[in-house]
Amino acid sequence: MNVTTKLSRAEEELAAFDLGRVIASPLTNLVVAAVLTVAAFLEVAADHSAPATLPAVLATAPLAIRRSQPWLAVTLTFIGAVGLVLAGVNIPPVAVTISGVISFYTILRRLSRGVAWVLTAGIGALLVAAVAAFLLFASDPFSSSSWYLRDHGLILVVLPGALLATALVADVRRSRTEIKEVRADNLEALREQAAMAERARIAREMHDIVAHSISMVAVQAETAPYTLPGLDERAKQEFAEIAASARGTLTEMRRLLGVLRADIPSAPETAPQPGLARLPELIAQHDGEVDLDVVGEPVEVPQAVDVSAYRIIQEALTNARVHAPGARVSIELAYRPGLLVLRIADNGPGPAEKAGEPDGGHGLVGMRERALALGGWFTAGAGPNGGFLIQTGLPLE
Q1: Which of 29, 135, 182, 376 can pair with 394 through a Cys bridge, CB separation 3.0 to 4.6 Å?
Q2: Is residue 2 part of a domain?
Q3: Are residue 308 and residue 323 in the same domain, yes or no?
Q4: pLDDT tops 70 at residue 49
Q5: Which residues form the Signal transduction histidine kinase subgroup 3 dimerisation and phosphoacceptor domain (predicted)?
Q6: CA angle 205–209–215, rounded 5-degree value
Q7: Which residues form the domain of 335?
């Protein structure tokens, strides 16, 4: 399965759009609620009795809690709007209308795309029908309420359009969230793919290393009766059992690792794996300048550590060539009691994680997998004096 995290330009622009940040913070909601509440109170108090101002406040003040208690805020706003109608406020104040639009947006953000659009279409149709009926069938078209509708109540005429725009904004926000979720899933899939691929490569190398050692055990056990004259039958039988056990172990290991090896072009089992002895050759192949410093007395290291150390240095040089061309690379091999510590640093521009690359690229994933597979540790990031620094410790025991 091929996984990609590349988004189209339109998707990137959509992902960058974040209107919600403007109105999402608690402080912003509190300020908006306060302004609308005062405006609604003053507008209703100017033409109606004091009791009518209570539902006006109830229809606007709950916006302050629309983020923490969205459904409670929307419910209180609706109750306040109904209370205004019962109080004789036939034409809703502009502040209450704005509060209703914001509440509508709050609902849409929490509904599925299909339900949100059906709700938008239904409410929009009802509003258009209500306004049309009021204009067509008003008993007195020249009454104060009709003139108010024509001169000051245009918000009711454009409200369906406002609701549509609100639905579009909510849909954009929903799409942005979905894009972020897909991107996160893709990055996680890439990380897992890179880790699995590196584990498979490590498994192949470990198979070759262990297979060679076990094969030698089997061969030596089988030839022991011929190279060690005078063995009794019991000793010969024990050598035969050792050889049979070694052969069985080889067969079982090939069976267990066969699936991992199937996805990667494999070299012949007799092909030698590179180790630290070939480090000068690897450095000579690098395009830029490389300094090698060996700290401590070199000791013989296990073959698995030898191969992994070489591969980690090889990948680090590749990363330096790709991400910091021309940079000077310093490699330090420190032989410590029971531990081989590698330190690879360059004087390039330093880490710059790219979109779509987990942990800055697949190479770091592979290096980390190699170190952890041996029971070691691994770190990578900006160096203390700039550039990029990779450090890993590989146990020798």
Answers
A1: 376
A2: no
A3: yes
A4: yes
A5: 198-262
A6: 135
A7: 276-395
Which is nearest to 51 in space by CA: 78, 89, 99?
89
What span, in angstroms and rounded, lies between the C-alpha atoms of 272 and 253? 19
Q: Looking at the structure, do residues 243 and 280 belong to the same domain, yes or no?
A: no
Domain final residue pick, 187, 219, 248: 187
Q: Which of 132, 152, 187 is the last residue of a domain?
A: 187
C-alpha distances out from residue 241 to 26, 215, 217, 218, 376, Å: 75, 14, 11, 10, 35
- The model's pLDDT over 175-186, given as tens digits with 9 standing for 90+, comes to 677 777 778 878
The token pair that represents 272 in the structure block: 């030698």
Predicted confidence band at 342 (pLDDT cuts at 50, 70, 90)? very high
Which percentage of the chain shows pLDDT scores above 90?
A: 11
- Give the model's pLDDT for residue 357: 43
Cα–Cα distance for residue pair 291/343, rounded to 1 Å? 11
Q: Is residue 52 part of a domain?
A: yes
- d(C-alpha 159, C-alpha 139), whole Å: 24
Return phi, psi of residue 51, to 5°. -60, -30
How many domains are there within the chain?
3
